[in-house]
Amino acid sequence: MSVLRVLHLVGSAVSDFYCNLSRLYAQDCLENTANSALYEFHIAYISPDRTWRFPTSLAQSAIAAAHPMSLAGAVQVLSDLQIDVMIPQMFCIPGMTQYRSLFDLLNIPYVGNPAELMALVADKAKAKAVVAAAGVSVPLGEIVRGGDRPSIDFPAVLKPVNSDNSIGVAFVKNAADYDAALQTALTHSDEVLVEKFIELGREVRCGIIVKAGELVCLPLEEYALDADTKPIRSYADKLKQNDDGNLSLTSKDSTKSWIVDISDPITERVYAMARKCHIALGCRDYSLFDFRIDPQGQPWFLEAGLYCSFAQKSVLSTMAKASGTSLDTFFESMLQNAF
C-alpha cells in the first residue's frame, strides 16, 4: 500500500476565534493519527485575511514563519504537492462551504460532507425543514429579524440561525426577556430561529458512520442538564478560552457528558430518527445529530453537525471508541471512503 499524501485544511477565513478552534482540533488529530508508514501529512493554514500558508506544524511560531500567499499561489503549491486526500478542519461558514468547493474544482477528494450540504445545514431552519419532511419530529419554530415578535408561546429558545457551539443561544422564559435575548442573538446572525421549548427529559447526540455502504449508528453521547438550573446547553458547556488566549474543550469533562449504555431504551428510538436525518439530508461518510428527549421519551431533532476533525476528543471519535473502533481504524476507514 502506497503512502497517502494527506492535507489538513486548517484555520479560518473569518476570525481568530475560528482559527483557534480549528487549530485546537487539528493539532489533536495530527498528534493522534500520524503514521509515517501510511500517511504523509501536510498542512494548509488559512488566515482571516484569506492568505494561505503551508507551515511545518501548527505551532504559532511555525505558522508565523510560513510564507503567506494568495489563492493563486496556494493552488500552485497544492498542485505541486500532489495531494491524495484532504481533511477539512475549518469550522467557519466559508471554510465549510467555499473552501470545500475549491477542492471539488481541483479534483482533490476530501473526507466528509460536500459543500452544498454543509451550506444547507449551516442554516438551522433549513436543516429542520428537510428532516421534518422526512417524518422526523422537530420543535415548532419560526425565523425572526430585528424588531419582529414571534407568534410562538414562551418559554422558547432563541438561536442565531447560522452559528455553532451554542454561540448566542438563549432560553427565554417569558416575553419580558425576549428583546434582550434577540439583540444578543442578532450580534451573531441577521436571522434568529425561535423554537418552542421542549421540556427536558434528556439531551443526546447520535453519530453515524458509513461502512461498506451501510449506516452504522454509534453509541449515544448524553449531556448533563437540569430542568431548573440548566435547561439548555450553552457556549460555556462546550468551549472555554484559556489565559494564553487558546481554546480548550469543556464538554469532554465526564461530569458534563458521557456515553449512553447501548441497552438504554432511548437508543433505538434515536437511531431510527438519526437514520432518517442522514438519508433525508444526503449525508456522506458520517453524520452527527443533536436530539432533545422529552419527558415522555420522544426524540426531537435540534440540529445537525456534519463535521469531524478526527481529533481524539472529537465527538465521533469518542463514540467510535465506545463502539470498539480505535481512532486509527476510524481515520483510515474514512480516508478510504473518500475515494
From TrEMBL:
Gene3D superfamilies: 3.40.50.20, ATP-grasp fold, A domain (3.30.1490.20), ATP-grasp fold, B domain (3.30.470.20). SUPFAM superfamilies: Glutathione synthetase ATP-binding domain-like. The keyword Ligase applies. It comes from the Bacteria. One of its GO terms (molecular function) is ligase activity. Pfam families: Dala_Dala_lig_C. Keywords: ATP-binding, Ligase, Nucleotide-binding. Residues 128-336 form the ATP-grasp domain. PANTHER family: D-ALANINE--D-ALANINE LIGASE, D-ALANINE--D-ALANINE LIGASE B. Belongs to the D-alanine--D-alanine ligase family. This is D-alanine--D-alanine ligase. It comes from Microcoleus anatoxicus PTRS2.
